[in-house]
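Supplementary notes for students who missed Thursday's class. We covered one full example, reproduced here. Read the sequence, then the structure, then the short commentary at the end.
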Amino acid sequence: MTELQQKQLALLEDTIKFFNSENRAEYNGKCTYHTEDGRGCAIGRLIPDKELCKKFDALEDSPVYEERVFSNLPDNVKEYGKFFLSELQKLHDHTECWSINGLSSIGEVKVQKIKHAFDLN
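Structure (token representation):
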């Protein structure tokens, strides 16, 4: 496994351990990079500049794969790769991937697909 793949796997595992259906960064039913009460989404947690997160949240639609978002990420976040971050964001954003205890069965399938797609097994 390459150094990048090790980092991707570590971030994926950290995301799985951290989130459940109760602590995802949502505001008015929409996932956000940062909430006023200090929560962050899977990507927002990686961005120390919370003003930048607020700028992303102010956009009409701000998926991490869009150049206007990705190009403004800190370099240490960009190194994970646009498509990996996009898949991580989708995992976080989809309510059906989470239960009160963490990943749902749908989330577990999604994680396996991410691991397969990025050769993280």
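Commentary. The mean pLDDT is 93. Helices lie at 3-18, 50-58, 67-70, 75-78, 82-93, 105-117. If anything here is unclear, bring it to office hours.
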